[in-house]
Design brief:
Elements: E1 2-6, E2 9-14, E3 20-22, E4 25-27, H1 31-34, H2 37-42, E5 45-51, E6 61-62, E7 67-71, E8 74-78, E9 83-84, E10 90-91, H3 94-98, E11 111-113, H4 116-132, H5 136-144, H6 152-174, H7 178-183
Parallel strand pairs: 5-8
Antiparallel strand pairs: 1-2, 1-5, 3-4, 6-9, 7-8, 10-11
Helix pairs in contact: 4-6
């Protein structure tokens, strides 16, 4: 990305190289590929330096739009302070009902917008369900066939998946804020790498 600076003010942002009229001169798009930075700067075109120091993980934060600034011969695009996403569910209130905003299929106290904890726990449940599904037939067969029993390795695996799922959901519930929640998913540099949330077991038969 480039910016056109005129009279020490950014007058145009250039996302893709294109022909450009500056003053009375029409410059072709190829100047962006063949001119040096100093040559571009001489006519007021500066490559934008991206400052991501305030940018945070969009899975957990809402970032501001970039703001652009020209100073000391450099154009910088930076972010303001990010806002943490809601970690808890927001609920429909009596005020919503009084204002006529409560949907017909909802009641006061129902979830209005799911928070990060609920969304993360839903993913854990889906992952656990996906791990259990391939071995469901063992359980069904044991139900239909009296002389058949589920192999102990399969039973243990299924129990461990459910146990780990519950542990993960508890860890998510116990996160005090968004940063603590995000930290559960951060892998360390061990070999093998681990994370506070842990991992689901694998089936070995």
């Amino acid at each position: 990305m480039y910016a056109l600076v005129e009279n020490n003010q950014i007058t145009k942002l250039i996302n893709n190289p294109k022909s450009l009229m500056i003053g009375d001169v029409n410059y072709p798009a190829k100047i962006f590929s063949v001119w040096s930075q100093s040559e571009l700067n001489a006519i007021g075109i500066y490559e934008v330096v991206i400052d991501n120091s305030n940018k945070k993980d969009e899975a957990y934060y809402i970032n501001t739009n970039q703001s652009f600034d020209y100073a000391d011969g450099q154009v910088t695009a930076s972010y303001g302070s990010a806002t943490a996403k809601a970690i808890a569910d927001s609920l429909w209130t009596q005020e919503d009902s009084d204002n006529g905003d409560l949907p017909d299929d909802k009641e006061v106290g129902d979830v209005k917008v799911k928070g990060l904890k609920t969304l993360k726990k839903e993913i854990i449940k889906q992952q656990a369900s996906g791990l259990l599904a391939p071995t469901d037939w063992y359980v069904l067969k044991a139900t239909d066939v009296a002389e058949y029993s589920v192999p102990s390795a399969v039973s243990t695996f299924r129990t461990n998946v459910r146990t780990k799922s519950n542990e993960m959901e508890t860890a998510i519930d116990n996160a005090s804020d968004v940063d603590a929640l995000a930290a559960l998913y951060v892998y360390n540099d061990d070999d093998p790498r681990t994370r506070p949330l842990g991992e689901f077991p694998t089936l070995e038969i």
